[in-house]
Design brief:
This protein is an alpha/beta fold. It has 8 helices and 5 strands, in the order E-H-E-H-H-E-H-H-E-H-H-E-H. The chain binds adenosine-5'-diphosphate and thymidine-5'-diphosphate.
Length: 213
């Protein structure tokens, strides 16, 4: 059981190793006796998984950035209502592979005024941040090669290429500097076990502080 503080997200560019690290963290916490919910965005609830298909499949120009902001936020609202909040209320630890910081970067960086739109809609419809965010930092060339190595129909964002990934990386690092109380940066260009050891240490410190708070 945690007395608050149990909402943990992973962020980073495509292929940085978020899903791998989220899974390793969930396994480690479960071995330690914690009740963990591992979930992801876009998705994590039945309705949000349907929206995931709409946003991740099809040609890159299928939606405007504004429509994407609405779709990702709609998916997040459903995920929060049906999956995340009930789990947190039950005292579980929630590990979420991407959350609102991804919309701030992937949609918010795509044009003038879009970041403001993301933040306004977030305040109106979501109003919640993770207690701790682990940013897996990674050189985009390596990240893209890893991401493109995977098969599948979800290629809208990965096909945007290296330049966008460079912007995302810089944007995520700036976000971490602006939210240093919540976001911790981890070097992802190492063996998975080394990255996982850093993650485990940071999360253990965080949970120890949350439990005594
Ligand atoms: P993300 O969720 O950030 O897109 P994944 O965890 O799915 O990243 O990893 C992308 C690919 O890279 C997968 O094939 C995974 O097995 C591999 N991978 C993950 N972490 C590492 C690592 N530290 N070193 C080398 N390859 C990795
Ligand atoms: P994800 O399945 O996490 O992809 P990956 O494992 O390659 O990192 O997310 C799919 C894509 O959705 C990814 O390219 C980032 C994008 N995305 C957004 O553009 N906005 C968002 O709000 C979220 C949550 C994801």
């Amino acid at each position: 059981m945690t007395a608050g503080g149990g909402f943990i997200s992973f962020e980073g560019i495509d292929g940085s190793g978020k899903s791998t690290q989220a899974r390793l963290l969930a396994d480690a916490l479960r071995k330690g006796g914690q009740d963990v919910l591992l979930t992801r965005e876009p998705g994590g609830s039945a309705g949000a998984e349907e929206i995931r298909k709409l946003v991740l499949e099809g040609p890159p120009d299928r939606w405007s950035p504004e429509t994407e902001i609405l779709l990702f936020t709609a998916a997040r609202r459903d995920h929060l209502e049906r999956t995340i909040r009930p789990a947190l209320d039950a005292g579980r630890i929630v590990i979420c592979d991407r959350f609102a910081d991804s919309t701030r970067m992937y949609q918010g960086l795509r044009g003038a005024g879009l970041r403001l739109m993301v933040d306004s809609l977030h305040d109106l419809m979501i109003g919640q941040e993770p207690d701790l965010t682990l940013l897996i930092d990674m050189d985009p060339t390596t990240g893209l090669a890893r991401a493109l190595g995977r098969q599948g129909a979800e290629e809208r964002f990965e096909s945007f290429g290296q330049q966008m990934q460079e912007q995302m990386r810089a944007g995520f690092l700036a976000l971490a500097r602006d939210n240093s109380d919540r976001i911790r940066v981890i070097d992802g260009a190492r063996a998975p076990e080394e990255v996982a050891a850093d993650v485990a240490r940071i999360v253990a410190d965080h949970l120890a502080r949350a439990t005594v708070a």
